[in-house]
Specification:
Layout lengths: L6 H13 L6 H8 L3 H14 L4 E4 L4 E4 L13 H13 L7 H16 L29 H11 L1 E7 L9 E13 L2 E8 L4 E6 L3 E10 L8 H4 L13 E7 L4 H5 L8 E4 L5 E7 L3 H9 L4 E5 L1 H17 L4
Antiparallel strand pairs: 1-2, 3-4, 3-7, 4-5, 5-6, 8-10, 8-11, 9-10
Length: 326
């Protein structure tokens, strides 16, 4: 065990041993916790006199016991900020629902809750009902897919999958992939993998995998694979080897919302005299960026590159035609 053993931890340890009814004594407790008998003796005195524990010594059993079976240690010093952090983390667990780790994480939090003294309370103004959490819309992942992908990632085994490309009318293509990295993004789970069919690294949405089985063959992740490096200039979950400089002008009505967030690590903002601003960033893929730009409507204008401006204009035109004659 670690050299640093705070009294709080020792008291919980001693209390657990006494609750087990094995009549521990100073020598046995000191040997197991790797401290001196004098340290344990001081802890026992603290339990008896400061925490008013019904602690007695049995000469027959040559150890300590509680004279009251239902005795529990009084509330320990747990800061409200610690409890709130635990509460937040537990609520955020919902985004992992349906994954192999969700059940294990819930068990961990249950153990944390069970370890808290029953008398632990929060001070005034700590009503958790005044906090709400809205999760992003989540994709539906077929039963067994997550577990197979998780096992492939964990054990470095190839996967045989059946994958449906978005917009494709066929029933999906069979592929063998080597899963390198898992990614969670906006309610969807992705696996970054080497595709044996395309002979290149590709991004696969778990929601589009209809079949998945772990292959006996193991693989080795190349030394030059660096997820942080290849995704550094991404805007969303897609990326490529090419980088594009993009400049967008946002109207004064939405400029405050643009300023208050970091949208991309490369972003640079130039404020204009009329209250608008220009946002400049360098990205490796335009797919999610185009969707994001369209969400701002007439308040976002692509200044460069020209090709992206043309694509946005064509998309807006197609949208307008949907309502012609309405």
């Amino acid at each position: 065990m670690a050299k640093y053993k705070p009294q709080h931890s020792r008291l919980l340890f001693i209390d657990r041993k006494i609750q087990e009814g094995r009549f521990p004594n100073c020598s046995s407790l000191a040997a197991e916790w790797e401290v001196s008998s004098k340290t344990i003796q001081r802890d026992l005195e603290y339990l008896r006199y400061d925490l008013e524990a019904p602690l007695e010594y049995s000469a027959k059993e040559r150890g300590y016991y509680y004279t009251e079976e239902r005795f529990q240690l009084p509330a320990m010093d747990v800061k409200e900020s610690d409890l709130f952090a635990i509460y937040l983390a537990e609520k955020l667990l919902s985004q992992y629902e349906g994954t192999p780790v969700y059940h294990n994480l819930c068990q961990v939090f249950q153990k944390i809750e069970d370890s808290l003294p029953s008398k632990t309370t929060l001070g005034p103004g700590s009503d958790f009902s005044r906090f709400s959490f809205f999760s992003a819309a989540q994709t539906m992942i077929r039963p067994g897919i997550w577990q197979a992908v998780f096992d492939g990632l964990r054990t470095l085994h190839s996967l045989d999958i059946k994958y449906q490309l978005p917009g494709s009318k066929d029933k999906g293509s069979k592929r063998r992939i080597d899963p390198y990295h898992g990614v969670r993004f906006e309610g969807d789970w992705y696996v970054i993998a080497y595709c044996h069919l395309r002979k290149a690294i590709r991004t696969f949405s778990l929601a589009r995998i209809s079949e998945a089985a772990v292959h006996p063959e193991r693989f080795t992740i190349p030394d030059d694979f660096d997820f942080q490096a290849i995704s550094a200039s991404h805007f969303g979950v897609h990326w490529s080897d090419n980088e594009t400089k993009v400049r967008i002008r946002f109207g004064k009505e939405v400029a405050p919302y643009i300023r208050e967030r970091t949208w991309h690590e490369s972003q640079q903002i130039t404020n204009n005299e009329d209250g608008s601003l220009d946002l400049e960033l360098t990205v490796s893929h335009l797919f999610e960026l185009k969707k994001w730009l369209l969400s701002w409507g007439s308040q976002a204008q692509v200044l460069e590159p020209g090709e992206l401006a043309k694509e946005i204009k064509a998309e807006v035109g197609a949208m307008a035609r949907l309502y012609d004659g309405g």
